[in-house]
């Protein structure tokens, strides 16, 4: 096989993406679809799921709340049945969580962030891993964040979940190595789009700053001085599921322009 062919995921991969009807998840789903994979996504928003079905009829999609075990169980069963098995799991679903000093955070908001960002990863894994073990080239990509390698003041619930995902990936890589299942985390930085705009606006309000001033401060902490794109993240996900990455597991790979601190 030519070296450049190794960089392409094997055609026909069966790929499941959580939170795959918008943002990074949709970008990853479309990227796999474009290279000939069979893709099935879920999202909590029925309208977003309907939009994916309408715009991308080759991508299967279903409504699921990843913070609820029974909903996850249904989704994984539906996806595995529709795809005829599973080769790739992209555990992407997550929320930004609240912004504010730790003493002002509502416990319900903390619980919601933990449930959506961390518990969901476990709920999906416990059902998907037995299916993945039957694949000859199984790969799990877990979406962490630059907040999973740096401290993130005023975003403690979110950062806590993203650090936990890095630990989950490292542990699972050891556990599943004997089964040939590779497990890696992708750590996006500031991804251009409406979501990071909302995050910047919330932090600006917390600190009493204007939006543009807060955005400039965020960018000043990035070595390359710019945000990344959903396509940047999707490209790394494709690489991690390609033959070129067949010996990469247990890694947390930052795609962030080198965020120096948060």
Automatic annotation (TrEMBL):
The keyword Amino-acid biosynthesis does not apply. The keyword Oxidoreductase applies. InterPro entries: NAD(P)-bd_dom_sf, Sc_DH/Rdtase_CS, SDR_fam. Keywords: Oxidoreductase. One of its GO terms (molecular function) is oxidoreductase activity. PANTHER family: DEHYDROGENASES, SHORT CHAIN, OXIDOREDUCTASE UCPA. Belongs to the short-chain dehydrogenases/reductases (SDR) family. This is SDR family oxidoreductase.
